[in-house]
Design goal:
With 317 residues, the chain is an alpha/beta fold. It has one domain: TIM Barrel (Alpha-Beta Barrel). The longest helix has 17 residues. This is Aldo/keto reductase. Pfam families: Aldo_ket_red.
Length: 317
Amino acid sequence: MTTGTTRLGIGLAAVARPAYITSGRAADLGARRSVEDLRARTEAVLDAAYAAGIRYIDVARSYGRAEEFLAGWLARHPEVDDVEIGSKWGYRYVGDWRVDAPVHEVKDHSVAAFTEQLAETAALLGPRLGVYHVHSATLDTGALDDAALHRELARLRDRGVRVGVSTSGPAQADAVRRALEIEVGGAPLFTSIQSTWNVLEPSVGPALAEAAAAGARVIVKEAVANGRLTPGAPDAPPLAVEIAAELGIPLDQLAIAAALAQPGAWRVLSGAVDPAQVASNAAAADVALPGDALERLAAVAEEPGAYWAARSARSWS
């Protein structure tokens, strides 16, 4: 059995459903996006990730058939007993496997939604589930103030599943800090924090460092900014492209190496959709960025509100 040696994880958000907001999907996926096409592609990505030493897999109820595809891959690989699986609840996938669906996912952070979706996740992943995140918890969805929900989450925690939150939006830092304050039964409730951090939107960085210092595990998502920090991206920042060229590495490796350099980052997720992308992303673990490169990259950061407004405006494709 290969031993996992990398701090990368693999996320299935972009490969287990036909539409997503990552750029370049026409080139990456083409028109072959049937359930069976994406099942096969997902399994190829998981094979490549495992071979690269990746041992953390990120899925969610709203990622199309991600949990189903992962469960099938695990069933076909009984020798794989050393991966940790994190899933998320709080969004429902409603896209009906259509690229042109008017709505692809619907948010619901109620106790009823948690109970329903936990049962769905358990039916597919059973005891393999290691972490369950509230999907995109914010201060205004109520998930961070709902005592009844916290009691239900604590029951899951007490059964041995780590409970966490994922965050999005310009107020991520506030959500992270609020999550860290919550205790149930005299113990912290949320001990896994998954947040968007990349060189274009690094504002949550100090809060993530605080989370790590408090003993929570920190998972970085969207390190390549939904494709904006990948080779050939039309909206890649010129300075980042220049720095990558100077270092002789692809832009995705620069972006992921910068995320790996953040204090307290336990895992940085790859959102690769084919084995070649997996290999390139995984190679970032061997990139040691010089300090001046990180300092120069600070200049590409965007105002958080503008970054998230642009992200919200991205079309599903």
